[in-house]
């Protein structure tokens, strides 16, 4: 009921939001799609570990003591400590709990559990080769694969855990979320379980909780007696990056013992419940639309750990839900709008997915980042960022958002077909299509609809004006018709170019392997002028104009943009860094060694790049004249009204008139 009321309340307030950003004071109401997290219920106490421990697994609580396996470069050892984190010591095998010995015997398994009756449950994560499996070994030595005992159920396990009563359970996929299914070791079957949303990992139960699970942002505990789920903590709030958590256990008093591995070094923290009033840090909030990178979350945890005055807690807004607008769950958009109109705009916003940021930049929701970038001597000011990225992300000379990484949306062409063109306009593309009748502008499985990112140049969101009856758009419709409805090829040329996303330096080498050394990049989204080569930013970050501590928010964003972080970033290794020095470092790496890639189903050794190859990539960057900035609703309007023109039932002018009318109405609704 509360959820439904919040949605209706959000919709009622949207009209005032689109009229102006500031509204009269209204009763506070929590966001719908993203619940605020009790980040400070638990306080971390980090425990000093022996040198050389790279990872900790199999945290186990037995008779009030904590045991775990410590993994070194050359093997693993068992350690124990008291529940308060004291008396950390290595344990001889003879004194280790049976469950620990069992785990140590199965190093090839992804998870091993033992119960009080001599049963052993083992999870094998087989990766992409075969489906993951769960087996049960009984006291008599019999081994059985756990199978589904639920009619018409397809069980896809991705972990195992122990419930609070000591029995086994599997963590499985179920729709958009997951489920925890009990395992009967006697019959080796799954039973009816508990559904959990957005689950990424699960942990064995204890204390008040039957089991625990995480959705990458927060940790939850399931209380079997009530059937309720409690939000326990925000990973960032306790300085533990979820992506690096390797094991977790619950102590009898509901304290937690949690292990993580950051940059090859293990961390171990005792998390005890503390009154919120004991916290003295000022809180900043971060809203994340989409799956945030492990590197960025680790950096946030480090930022919070080192900062004595401020801490940043994050809230996850679901994205990519089937049937949603913008590639972001509409309930998430409504919840974010509600936060804006009630004066609760998150201090920092991270946008992954097709977030409709133009709705907010035109209303002053986001702050201009240039003053903070210019004043950041430690980072190096504007000169620290790849200039083409800044140029592509600017809006009227202001920088409302900045990304950590990017790729280039372009197209690869053979100069024997396109001639001397190094980029093409709509006139160029139409002339070539007439020269090669029946050919398509683009080919390849990566080709996308021309309406995906090609419409922004016909819209002024701030003024609420559209230009869909212009001569340029009529040419665009003619071009799009050949794109979506090519004629019968009458020449050997079936496509003028192949669409390509140049993600990193290696991509250029792959393109050379496919299309030859003489390839040219002509641009995927041609217009009246310009190259049509666009930047696709990854991890767009913004600071709200209402943030009271913009310098602190910028300090965190700046930490993600440094040469050191972006050069070492493994989670973004497949994209260009936006830090200019890190970009140069990546170029040197590409010139230093060969690399194996899979191409056409075969592993091919790519030669190290030459300076000429590097220069070609930088030349491509120099042609960038915009960024991918789509709007699914606008694209749907154009696609629907253009369909009769494509089918020959309407003229281009008639279709354009209808598009102009509907699009203008829609764009003004966003003002």
What is the strand and helix layout of this fold?
Blueprint: H1 2-19, E1 42-46, E2 55-62, E3 65-72, E4 75-82, E5 89-90, H2 98-105, E6 111-114, E7 120-124, E8 133-137, E9 143-145, E10 147-148, E11 157-162, E12 168-174, E13 177-184, E14 189-190, E15 194-196, E16 201-206, E17 209-214, E18 218-223, E19 228-234, E20 245-250, E21 256-262, E22 265-273, E23 282-289, H3 294-306, E24 310-317, H4 330-341, E25 348-351, H5 358-361, H6 370-375, H7 387-393, E26 405-413, H8 415-418, H9 426-435, E27 440-443, E28 459-460, E29 465-466, H10 471-484, E30 495-502, H11 505-515, E31 520-521, E32 534-538, E33 540-543, H12 550-560, H13 563-568, E34 576-577, H14 580-592, E35 595-599, E36 602-606, H15 611-622, H16 632-646, H17 652-669
Parallel strand pairs: 10-14, 23-24, 23-25, 27-30
Antiparallel strand pairs: 1-22, 2-3, 3-4, 4-5, 6-7, 7-8, 8-9, 11-12, 12-13, 13-14, 13-15, 16-17, 17-18, 18-19, 20-21, 21-22, 25-33, 26-30, 26-31, 26-32, 26-34, 28-29, 35-36
Tell me what you see in this structure.
With 671 residues, the chain is α+β, with helices and mostly antiparallel strands. It contains 17 helices and 36 strands. The strands form 9 sheets. Strands 10, 11, 12, 13, 14 and 15 form a 6-stranded mixed beta sheet that branches. Strands 26, 27, 30, 31, 32 and 34 form a 6-stranded mixed beta sheet that branches. Strands 1-22-21-20 form a 4-stranded antiparallel beta sheet, with no helix packed on it. Strand 35 and strand 36 (602-606) form a beta hairpin. Helix 9 (426-435) packs across helix 10 (471-484). It is elongated. The two termini are 31 Å apart. Residues 1-40 and 321-326 have low confidence and may be disordered.
């Amino acid at each position: 009921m509360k959820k439904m009321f919040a949605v209706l309340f959000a919709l009622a307030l949207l009209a005032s939001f689109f009229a102006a950003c500031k509204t009269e004071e209204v009763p506070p109401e929590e966001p719908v799609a993203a619940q605020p997290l009790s980040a400070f219920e638990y306080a971390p106490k980090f425990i000093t570990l022996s040198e050389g421990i790279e990872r900790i697994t199999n945290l186990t609580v037995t008779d009030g003591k904590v045991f775990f396996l410590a993994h070194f470069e050359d093997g693993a050892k068992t350690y124990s400590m008291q529940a308060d984190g004291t008396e950390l010591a290595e344990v001889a095998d003879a004194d280790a709990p049976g469950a620990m010995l069992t785990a140590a015997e199965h190093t090839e398994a992804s998870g091993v559990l033992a119960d009080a009756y001599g049963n052993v449950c083992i999870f094998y994560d087989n990766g992409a080769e075969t489906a993951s499996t769960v087996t049960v070994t009984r006291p008599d030595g019999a081994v059985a694969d756990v199978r589904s005992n639920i009619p018409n159920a397809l069980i896809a396990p991705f972990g195992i855990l122990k419930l609070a009563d000591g029995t086994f359970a599997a963590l499985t996929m179920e729709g958009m979320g997951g489920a925890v299914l009990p395992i009967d070791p006697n019959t080796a079957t799954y039973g009816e379980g508990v559904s959990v949303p957005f689950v990424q990992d699960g942990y064995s139960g204890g204390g008040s909780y039957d089991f625990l699970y995480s959705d990458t942002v927060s940790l939850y505990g399931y209380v079997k007696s009530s059937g309720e789920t409690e939000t326990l903590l925000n990973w960032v709030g306790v300085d533990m990056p979820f992506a690096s958590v390797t094991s977790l256990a619950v102590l009898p008093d509901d304290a937690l013992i949690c292990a993580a591995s950051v940059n090859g070094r293990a961390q171990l923290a005792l998390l005890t419940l503390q009154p919120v009033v004991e916290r003295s840090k000022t809180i900043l909030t971060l809203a994340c639309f989409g799956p945030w990178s492990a590197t960025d979350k680790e950096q946030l945890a480090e930022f919070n750990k080192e900062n004595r005055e401020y801490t940043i807690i994050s809230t996850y807004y679901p994205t990519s839900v089937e049937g949603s607008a913008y590639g972001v769950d509409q309930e998430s958009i409504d919840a974010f709008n509600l936060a804006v109109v009630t004066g609760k705009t998150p201090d920092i916003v991270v946008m992954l997915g097709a977030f409709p940021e133009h709705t907010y930049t035109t209303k002053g929701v986001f702050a201009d980042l240039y003053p903070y970038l210019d004043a950041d001597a430690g980072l190096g000011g504007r000169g620290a960022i790849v200039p083409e990225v800044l140029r592509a992300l600017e809006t009227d000379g202001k920088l409302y958002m900045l990304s950590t990484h990017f790729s280039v949306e372009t197209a690869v062409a053979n100069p024997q077909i396109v001639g001397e063109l190094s980029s093409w306009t709509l006139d160029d593309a139409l002339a070539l299509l007439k020269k090669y009748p029946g050919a398509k502008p683009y080919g390849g499985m990566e080709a996308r609809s021309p309406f995906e990112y090609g419409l922004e140049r016909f819209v002024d969101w701030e003024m609420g004006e559209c230009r869909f009856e212009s001569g340029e758009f009529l040419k665009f419709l003619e071009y799009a018709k050949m794109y979506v409805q090519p004629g019968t090829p009458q020449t050997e040329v079936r496509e003028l170019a192949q669409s390509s996303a140049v993600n990193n330096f290696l991509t250029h080498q792959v393109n050379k392997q496919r299309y030859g050394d003489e390839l040219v990049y002509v641009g995927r989204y041609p217009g009246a002028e310009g190259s049509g080569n666009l930047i696709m930013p990854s991890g767009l970050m913004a600071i709200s104009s209402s943030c009271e501590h913009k310098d602190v928010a910028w300090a965190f964003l700046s930490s993600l943009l440094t040469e050191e972080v972006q050069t070492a970033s493994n989670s973004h290794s497949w994209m260009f860094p936006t830090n200019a020095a890190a970009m140069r470092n990546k170029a040197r790496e590409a010139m230093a060694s060969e690399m194996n890639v899979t191409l056409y189903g075969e592993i091919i050794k790519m030669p190290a790049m030459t300076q000429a190859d590097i220069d070609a990539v930088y030349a491509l960057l120099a042609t960038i004249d915009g960024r991918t900035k789509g709007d699914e609703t606008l694209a749907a309007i154009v696609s629907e009204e253009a369909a009769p023109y494509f089918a020959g039932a309407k003229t281009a002018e008639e279709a354009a008139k209808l598009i102009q009318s509907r699009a203008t109405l829609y764009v003004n609704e966003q003002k």
